[in-house]
Amino acid sequence: xxxxxxxxxxxxxxxxxxxWSLTPRHLAVVALVLTIGLLWAGCSVLRSQPEPVPDxxxxxxxxxxxxxxxxxxxxxxxxxxxATPPTxxxxxxxxxxxxxxxxxxxxxxxxxxxxxxxxxxLPGADLTTLNLARPVTDGEQILVGLPNLPPPGPNPxxxxxxPTSVDLNTATLDQLDALPGVGPxxxxxxLDYRTEHGRFTTIDQLQEVPGVGTKKYxxxxxxxxx
Length: 226
Fold this sequence. Notes:
Largest sheet: 3 strands, mixed
Strand order of the largest sheet: 2-1-3
Shape: elongated
CATH class of the domain at 166-225: Mainly Alpha
Helix content: 25-40%
Distance between the termini: 162 Å
Strand content: 5-15%
Number of helices: 5
CATH topology of the domain at 166-225: DNA polymerase, domain 1
Order of helices and strands: HEEHEEHHHE
Oligomer: single chain
CATH architecture of the domain at 166-225: Orthogonal Bundle
CATH superfamily of the domain at 166-225: Photosystem II 12 kDa extrinsic protein
């Protein structure tokens, strides 16, 4: 089709020979129809979109006051400790061993490990008093083949010595005063009794001295003799 002509064979008989052309008025009508169609299509698309839901949460920039710390869950692991466990344990091995002295061993070591580090026990050493399976502690002393030492007693009064035993018939005031539980007053009473009654013939006579009761007599008995 050229020049706006339509072949006669394709038109009805009453339209054959008719010349078709578009005037500016026709073009304006077509443009108006197209514009209305586009506007209607745009409105349909806008109506089909969901309406946005307003966000009522406050903006972080508008929140005032001190920040609130997040709650700690009971299952959260505790903070790691900054303390460093010791890597070496030092013990003193003494007695009947080949190399007595300070032994540096690992944490969790046993008495048997410390004994082996000291070269082992000497022949004939009695190990029955040792618990070889006991874990050692830092700074302890291990005595091998030695009898258990008695715990230290109370410190004696400075300037006074406690003799093992004194003779009741020759002891002086100072010697009697040095006996446990005897002061200068009781020591003088013992001397007065000896002056008045003569020599002690038995230790039991101490109970006749004023101030020497049954308990004090039992305390003094190991420290006096005739």
